[in-house]
Structures are given as structure tokens and as C-alpha cells.
Amino acid sequence: MATKDINKVVLAYSGGLDTSVILRWLQDHYHAEVVTFTADIGQGEDIEPARAKAELMGIKEIFIEDLREEFVRDYVFPMFRANPLYEGAYLLGTSIARPLIAKRQIEIAKAVDADAVSHGATGKGNDQVRFELAYYALQPDIKVIAPWREWDLGSRTKLISYAEQNQIPIPKDKRGEAPFSVDANLLHISAEGKVLEDPWVAPEEYVFSRTVSPEDAPDKPTEIAIRFEAGDPVAINDQAMSPARLLEELNRLGGANGIGRLDLVENRFVGMKSRGVYETPGGTILLTARRAMESITLDRGAQHTKDEMMPRYAELVYNGFWFSPEREMLQAAIDSCRDAVNGVVRVKLYKGNVIVTGRQSPNSLYNADLVTFEEGAVDYDHSDAHGFIRLNALRLRVQQMVRTKGS
Q1: How many CB atoms lie within 10 A of CB 88?
Q2: Active-site residue 113, yes or no?
Q3: By the 8 A CB rule, do 235 and 345 touch?
Q4: Which of 68, 98, 261, 359 is catalytic?
Q5: Consecutive H or E run containing 51
Q6: Count of C-beta atoms within a 10 Å radius of residue 295
Q7: Which residues have a Cβ under 8 Å from the Cβ of 283 and sit 6 or more positions away?
Q8: What is the pLDDT of residues 140-177, one digit of tens each?
Q9: How distant, in Å, are the alpha carbons of 134, 318, 398 from that of 85?
């Protein structure tokens, strides 16, 4: 990309070593004005120091925004209506945060008349894909600067050296080699790399920060009731909460009971396998409770069709296609049955387990008269099953007759 084409860049800025080096590198390499954008999506750390650091580095336009409610309401909850699991296990905590950050970056770029946007994702990971697919989907002609694919600062030693040469402050605890990299938001926290790269070696307890070990969780279970309205959770134990507050409370309850740990070797979109250690306490509770709620409110055909769509939906989110027409099409289909998903699910949290103990709904399709072993009030003729079975067995019988004849 020609540096003369770039006059103003909006940088997704955390205030850490990597993005601080990127900030100065953009100024030096592109001679461009840099606008910083720092999002609070529930990563659990004070983001205001990013403002002071950006000011210290000469930045005039600084955007720092609390996006926690929007993140949960418009991204996490809609995604969870699909009951998503990538490769049968991963609750997509990192994946779902990228579209929101990218969307806000593009909005800021338009507001400040910037030529380009920039991110700190490396050239080996999925996040570069997620950010950039979202950028282009929202503003097709935007210029994207990915420093990790351009510069020669390929090691932590080089980053620190560059920071020192350019008077970029480095906290003492950031000078040593980090034992693993971390990504966090209100839905999850992940750890990968360094000490976690050997999939045979179990993660040490210090890797985990949001959950106690299941072995150390309380011996007495915690029982809670989650109320759903139109497919989304709205209250815990009859206490109404905003989306972000509700997820925070589920995280607290789940973390205290050792719920939501996952050690996974996954297939990255860019083609390699990686090992990640995830903690998603609130999301794990929510997934179990949602499925219990749907078990009594959704028709069998709708429920099974949702399950068939889920892997495709999860893959789209994982690969960065949140703003794609196919994800929006699947979302419309999934949301078409959300109005039926109302009621209360009771779950027991105990030593890493989420155990459903009750569910009720004004829209329940469960009919005790139909399933009872006693005489029910509903008209169900047992003899009807004979014809039903014979019709469904017809193709199996024909196949076996042909096989027998052939032998």
C-alpha cells in the first residue's frame, strides 16, 4: 500500500505494548494522523489508562467507549439463539467480539474522515480475517493496515527495542516474556501460545482466572432460575437485569462453581491447528438453560432444523462472516421461532456441572396426557402405531428383500 495514500488512520488501540508500538509505527511509516479507538467489552481491566498513553504519544482524537450492553444485546444474545458451538465445543467468545469492534471503527473512520483502519492482529491468527472481513463488508473501499504483515518487528525483543527507541512507556511487568497470550471480554477469556503450545501438557492452574477448579468448588450446589423472553434471558431468580449485567452475574455464579473450562485443539480458518484454553462460565450456563427452554417450547421439526443449522452458523461466526448475507439469512430463520421461547429454567450449578432440574413455559408443548403410562385424556389410539411403523419400515423391508434375492 502506498504510504502517500494514507492521511488518517483509526487504530483499534488497547494501550498495551503491541498497539502502542503500532501507533508510533503508523506515525513514522505512513506519516499519518492516528485516531485511537478503545472499546470496553468487558475485558475486566480499566481502559482509561489508554487515553493517557495515547495523549502522551501525541494523539488528538481519542475514542474510548463502553460497549458492554451493545455487545451482549446485539451480538452475544443473537448468537446464542443459535445454540452455537464451533467444532462441537467452542462458544465463540473471541469471534463474536470482533464484528462489534470493527463496526465501531468504521463508524469512527467515517465520522473523522479517515482513509484507513488498522488492527493489531498477527498474520497467523483468525482475528486478522475477522476484522478485515467486517471492515470490507461495512465499507468496501476502506484501506486496511495490518502492521504484523508489513513490518519486520517479528519478536517481543524487537517490539521492546522499538518502544525504547521511541520513548514508548513499557510497564515493568510487560518486559518479560509472557507465558501465554490472553484475550478477554464479557463472554469469555482465552489463553494460548507459549506454555500452552504442547497439547499433551495440561494447563497449570495459574492459567485460569475466571473459574475456580471444579475440585475446589463448593460442596453445596447453587440452584438458580433463569427467565427467558423471546429467546433471550431477562432475569435470574426473578430479578430483572440488563443483558450485560445478567451475563456478569452468570459469570460470577459459574466461575464460583468451576463451570465453563475448555481445553481445545481447534482448526483455525487460516489452515493451522491451535490449542486454546477457554473459560466461559456464564455462556456455558446459558447454553444449557436455553436448550432446556427450547426442549418444551419448540416443535420437533423446528428444534431439529435449528440443530442442523447450528454448525454452519457457528462456522460463519468463527471465520468472521458475521456481516455476511448467509449469516443474516440463518439468523432470520433462527429468530423466526424465538417468540415461543418464553418461560423459566431451573439449573443446579455443582463442581463444573450445569444440571437442569426444572423447566416451565406458558408456550409449553409438553403434554402429560400424551406421554403418561396411565389413561390419558387426549385421544391417542395405540393401534395407529402399527400402520406408522409399517410405512416407515417399507423401504427397509424392500432393501432387505433385494439383498436376500441377490445372495
Answers
A1: 9
A2: no
A3: no
A4: 98
A5: helix 49-56
A6: 16
A7: 76, 80, 91, 93, 187, 188, 247, 250, 260
A8: 999 999 999 999 988 888 988 999 899 888 765 566 66
A9: 21, 10, 39
| pLDDT computed for residue 5 by the predictor | 82
For residue 27 the three cell numbers come to 506515525
Cα dihedral 395/396/400/403 (nearest 10): 60
What would the pLDDT profile of 81-115 be if each residue is shown by its tens digit? 999 999 999 999 999 999 999 999 999 999 999 99
User: Which one of 127, 210, 261, 327 is the catalytic residue?
Assistant: 127
Copy the grid coordinates of residue 13.
Answer: 488501540
Q: Which three cell numbers stand for residue 190?
A: 482465552
pTM (predicted TM-score) = 0.94
The upper half-sphere exposure of residue 27, i.e. CA atoms within 13 Å in the direction of its Cβ, equals 15
Q: Name the catalytic one among 51, 73, 156, 181.
A: 181
The CATH code of the domain at 3-177 is: 3.40.50.620
Catalytic residue among 18, 40, 115, 232: 18
Cα 67 from Cα 79, distance rounded (Å): 17
Please check the confidence at residue 262 and state whether its pLDDT lies above 80. Answer: yes
Give the separation between CA 116 and CA 112, rounded to whole angstroms.
Answer: 11
- Cβ neighbour number for residue 51 with a 10 Å cutoff: 17
Domain range 182-298+337-360, its CATH number among 3.30.450.40, 3.60.70.12, 3.40.50.11030, 3.90.1260.10:
3.90.1260.10
Is 98 annotated in the active site?
Answer: yes
Q: Taking all residues of the chain, what is their mean pLDDT, rounded to a whole number?
A: 94
Confidence at residue 83, expressed as pLDDT on a 0 to 100 scale: 98
Lowest-pLDDT choice from 52-56, 63-67, 258-262: 52-56
What burial class does residue 301 get, using C-beta atoms within 10 Å of its C-beta: 0-12 exposed, 13-18 middle, 19+ buried?
A: exposed
**Catalytic site includes residue 18:** yes
Residue type present at position 285: I
Is 152 tagged catalytic? no
* Strand ranges inside 48-199, DSSP E: 62-66, 116-118, 143-145, 181-184, 189-192
